[in-house]
Amino acid sequence: MQENKSVAEFILLGLTQDPMKKKIVFVIFLIFYVGTMVGNSLIIVTIKSSRTLGSPMYFFLFYLSLVDFCFSTSIAPRLIADSLSATKTISYNECMTQVFALHFFGTMEVFVLILMAIDRYVAICKPLRYPTIMSQQACTILIILAWIGAFIHAITEIILALRLPFCGPNLIDHYCCDLQPLLKLACMDTYLINLEWATNSGTVCTGSFVILMISYIVILHSLRNHSAEGRKKALSTCISHIIVVVLFFGPCIFIYSRPPSTFSMDKMVTIFYTIGTPFLNPLIYTLRNAEVKNAMRKLWRTTITSESKR
Q: Where is the G-protein coupled receptors family 1 profile domain (predicted)?
């Protein structure tokens, strides 16, 4: 409850206290963030403007890029700004908002990856029924359910955070607000809340990862019945998805699926899925996908042609 707190703001210690390293952090993560914004924006615009990218796979890829855009924006700007700031203060309300955004967009990414796996499973294992099962209406309903599920999870996390009383100190040994570092500052016994947090987030991460891995094993196993050309195309798409799943879920499981404890590498691991994965996703999906690359070339040529006619 907010009335239990006496701390009005927190101080984020960030990644480093060394002045030179702070400048390096600023440059590196500014490049990552700009790359994330440009890459995901390009995919969003390309899918929306292309007539050839109207399949459910690209419908879900659109939302993955949108979520990556928002996910990175909820974390990276403050990290970049704080790397050059003398005082890295964040108000209580801003901190709680960041906790909500981190879990809302992070969970939404989990659900979108699951929907992409379902789409590939139906396309490869039940090709004749694919248009019926993965209709536009069905895909829209699935995305709405994903937004609702992500909201419920984020609300659960923020309720746990709002129950914490803070009496000081107010130093958060992290570059962003999350429940785990906040639990260390609470002036109460946090064992039960820690258990609830680990159960909630850990189940989402580990359970989703297991579901995804099983689905892709089934998909890869079923490819033996396809032609060489069909197998090659499906394998290329599935490998892209598997790479994204491993890169995202590996760090998430490490952070959220373990007993209450803090390791020195936690901040670097968190960077990997909050900033690294949103940056890498556009590269993985465009470099390995000929249809997306062709659509981007057409969009680029159309833009250049329209500009030259002015």
A: 39-285
Tokens in use for 207? 């359970």
Q: Give the contacts of 295 (CB within 8 A, at least 6 positions apart).
A: 46, 47, 50, 52, 53
Q: What pLDDT is attached to residue 132?
A: 93
Q: Residue 57 corresponds to which amino acid?
A: M
Beta bridge partners of 172: 12
CA atoms within 13 A on the CB side of 227: 2
Beta bridge partners of 186: 166
| Maximum pairwise Cα distance, the chain | 68
Half-sphere CA count of 230, side-chain side, radius 13 A: 13
The secondary structure of residue 11, as a DSSP letter, is E
Candidates 70, 73, 84; CA nearest to 22 is: 84
Quick: pLDDT tens for 14-68: 888 888 888 999 999 999 999 999 999 999 998 988 888 888 989 999 999 999 9
What domains lie within the chain, and their CATH numbers?
Answer: 2-288 (1.20.1070.10)
Token reading at 35? 């790359």
Tokens representing 73? 């924006």
Distance between CA atoms of residues 82 and 255, nearest Å: 23
